[in-house]
Amino acid sequence: MDALEVDLDTDLDSDTNLRQDMEGPGEECGVFGVWAPDEDVSKLTYFGLYALQHRGQEAAGIAVSDGTDVVVYKELGLVSQVFDEPTLRSLQGGLAIGHTRYSTTGSSSWQNAQPSFRQTGAGSGLALGHNGNLTNTGELARMVASGTDTRDAMRSTTDSDLITSLIAAGATVDSTLAASALEVLPLLRGAFSLTFMDETTLYAARDRHGVRPLVLGRLERGWVVASETAALDIVGASFVREVEPGELLTIDEHGVRSARFGVPDPKGCLFEYVYLARPDTTIAGRSVHATRVEVGRRLAREAPAVADLVMPVPQSGGPAAIGYAEASGIPYGEGLVKNAYVGRTFIQPSQTIRELGIRLKLNPLREVIRGKRLVVVDDSIVRGNTQRALVRMLREAGALEVHVRISSPPVSWPCFYGIDFAQRAELIASGLSVEEIRRAIGADSLAYVSLAGLVAASEQPASRLCSACFTGEYPIALPAENVLGKHLLEGVQTDLLTDLSTDIQEHSPVVHDGQQAGEDELLVRP
Ligand code: SF4
Question: What whole-number distance in Å separates Cα of residue 143 and Cα of residue 161?
Answer without folding.
Answer: 13
